[in-house]
Amino acid sequence: MDVEARKYLPSELDDDGRIKRTGNMLTATTHIVTVVVGAGVLALAWAMAQLGWLAGIASMIIFASISIYTYNLIADCYRYPDPVTGKRNYTYMQAVQAYLGGRMYVFCGLVLYGKLAGVTVGYTITTSTSLVAIKKAICFHQKGHKAYCKFSNNPYMIGFGIVQILLSQIPNFHKLTWLSTLAAITSFGYALIGSGLSLAVVASGKGETTRLFGNKIGPELSGTDKVWRVFSALGNIALACSFATVVYDIMDTLKSYPPENKQMKRANVLGITAMTILFLLCGGLGYAAFGDDTPGNILTGFGFYEPFWLVALGNVCIVIHMVGAFQVMAQPLFRIIEMGANMAWPNSTFITMEYPTKIGSLTFNINLFRLIWRTIYVILATIVAMAMPFFNEFLALLGAIGFWPLIVFFPIQMHIAQKQIKTISLKWCVLHLISFLCFIISLAAAVGSIRGISKNISKYKVFMYKQ
């Protein structure tokens, strides 16, 4: 039983001894939409430009359909072994361990925490890109749209890293709930600003020519580059669809009746449908506005110059979102490493000792291991971001890494184990076919994004990139 739960009556507690959850289908839907509306939304117009109207719209709908199906399978695995009366799995990894055993648990942990680490690097890139875009918006406004307004991302990445080093020392990030709430609100802010500016361009009749099959092969785009860009675009869409890292955190807020899996299934349908509509709007409007010249990020690629203050405001929203989102993704990684260190060296004062510290009226504890390890991690994430500051390609790589294992492979394998589906039966074959096709898509997206990163690195000197 939780220490906090001891002061409550048994009737006020859930079956696992924790304080009764009060969430419902609508709150879960809100959480889903909040999580998936991230900076990746701003790359969807570029993805649409590579794929064209036909494949772009079809890809978003197919990814959404697969996501609804597999997230519903995940919902059924919240409890073990019975989806209604079984024991709760509080994390994705716990569910994988319960249904698939220790080896898959380790594999899941490597993928999950590897993706979390990659996302923190991606957020560092995104923040610096937006901070530079704010400076460029002001520069273009003051000096004209043809002025030389290129700046290094590095000082902004370093500044963002310093802020994250300070925030990372907070042992219990849940105490900064207000920052996460503010981050969620601003995510809608920049998505709406980007879509609104695109709509204004289209409504004014200044939209560019678009194509059914995406950017045209010609002197500026070879057939090979077109294929690689299509793969990278699929990775961008895959990243935008992902909330697997927090799906059980959302489920763990739901009240016990109706059963959590039934509530979550309805929330999955509503949340992913709302997400898909928003993605189609952002991607479609951005593509309609810019055509073949659609920038990788519609708020930082300067398809828009005026009103400069609105472009700057959209990028301010991105920065605020990234400050909170970095910690939301980094804290689970911090926690697992520190838990492992405590288990491995329980008698080490360097790892376990907390030193009360007071600065003015502020009192807090300093742990040397936490101070050094978290600082080193943020520094390394910043260095990697400075070496590879390529927004679209890095987001595509993250999407490719996480999509197949977390959204397709593990849910299907857990479903097969839970329902005891016979090997080589029709359903078993269909499920494995879906998994295999999604693996091919993820692999192609990963290869395409890695090629894009390597191609960009060969063009620019490492640590000398200017946007």
TrEMBL record:
Taxonomic placement: Eukaryota, Viridiplantae, Streptophyta, Embryophyta, Tracheophyta
Protein keywords: Amino-acid transport, Auxin signaling pathway, Cell membrane, Membrane, Symport, Transmembrane, Transmembrane helix, Transport
TM segment ranges: 28-47, 53-74, 176-203, 269-288, 308-330, 371-388, 394-416, 428-450
One Pfam family hit: Aa_trans
UniProt record similarity statement: Belongs to the amino acid/polyamine transporter 2 family. Amino acid/auxin permease (AAAP) (TC 2.A.18.1) subfamily.
GO MF entry, a single one: symporter activity
GO BP annotations, alphabetical order: amino acid transport; auxin-activated signaling pathway
InterPro entries named among the record's database cross-references: AA_transpt_TM
Location in the cell: Cell membrane; Endomembrane system
Known function: Carrier protein involved in proton-driven auxin influx. Mediates the formation of auxin gradient from developing leaves (site of auxin biosynthesis) to tips by contributing to the loading of auxin in vascular tissues and facilitating acropetal (base to tip) auxin transport within inner tissues of the root apex, and basipetal (tip to base) auxin transport within outer tissues of the root apex. May be involved in lateral roots and nodules formation.
Protein name (database record): Amino acid transporter transmembrane domain-containing protein
Ranges of residues in domain Amino acid transporter transmembrane: 22-452
Chief location: membrane
Signal peptide: none
A cellular component term, taken from the record's GO annotations: plasma membrane
Organism of provenance: Clitoria ternatea
Record has Transmembrane as a keyword: yes
Membrane topology: Multi-pass membrane protein
